[in-house]
Design goal:
single chain; mainly alpha; Cytochrome Bc1 Complex, Chain D, domain 2; about 50% helix
Length: about 240
């Protein structure tokens, strides 16, 4: 069993698990994956936002309203397709989040908090303004519905279809791939365990007690008994 948990196995499993996650889109101006983004996404929410859920159905009307608001206020930084590649992105640090990637994976409460309060404070310290004074709650939820729709088929600036889509069927595809790889790792472990158990079964787990005849043969082979002694004692054991 220790072989199955060796550093080599752990490394292989780590690579497989890493392969299960979506890879960021090829980097361009303003599109690099900020290494602190994940930690910021884990920031605790104020109580007033912690339990918020989207009350606005993500229907075509809401998404259309959200697109108008997004294009007017958000695309300059986050990009027309939500990949963090807007015309103002290159001069921002930290860079705008690629929300076509992150939006479908973040909770309603977190997205509403960030849209409402912006990023001008720790741990975000970004140029994102607070929109709660300009956009009412319904507007903010419409924007969130639109941002989530980008993950299912976001468009790059200029109208080219984004090569990596992280919502809808593409997200389901990643989940299925992760499941298949995980099952493959588990299957390999099970096969290894079965192989070890069968190998141990072919050998006795504890030494078999020697029979008197085995002892006799071993002593004869070691030269402790002559041929005559061996034959005589063998006949005695067999009751002849």
């Amino acid at each position: 069993m220790r072989r199955l948990l060796s550093p080599g196995w752990i490394s292989v499993m780590g690579l497989l698990l890493a392969a299960c996650g979506p890879s960021p889109r090829a980097a361009g101006p303003g599109m690099g994956m900020d290494p602190g983004m994940m930690s910021r996404h884990m920031a605790p929410l104020p109580d007033e936002y912690a339990d918020r859920t989207n009350p606005v159905p993500a229907d075509a009307e809401s998404v259309a309203r959200g697109k108008e608001i997004y294009d007017a206020n958000c695309a300059v930084c986050h990009g027309a397709g939500g990949w963090g590649d807007g015309p103002a992105a290159a001069n921002l640090n930290p860079p705008p989040a690629p929300i076509a990637h992150t939006g479908p994976m973040l909770a309603d409460a977190y997205l509403f908090y960030r849209v409402s309060e912006g990023g001008g404070f720790a741990p975000f310290d970004s140029a994102m303004p607070a929109w709660k004074e300009k956009l009412n709650e319904a507007d903010r939820w419409d924007v969130i519905n639109y941002v989530r729709s980008l993950g299912g088929g976001g468009m790059m600036d200029g109208g080219m279809m984004g090569p990596m889509m992280f919502g809808g069927t593409m997200m389901l595809g990643w989940m299925l791939l992760a499941t298949v790889l995980t099952l493959g790792v588990l299957a390999a472990i099970v096969v290894g365990i079965v192989w070890l158990v069968r190998g141990a079964g072919g050998r006795s787990l504890s030494p078999r007690a020697e029979s008197p005849l085995d002892v006799l043969k071993r002593r004869y082979a070691a030269g402790e008994l002559s041929a005559e002694q061996f034959e005589m004692m063998k006949r005695q054991l067999s009751g002849e």
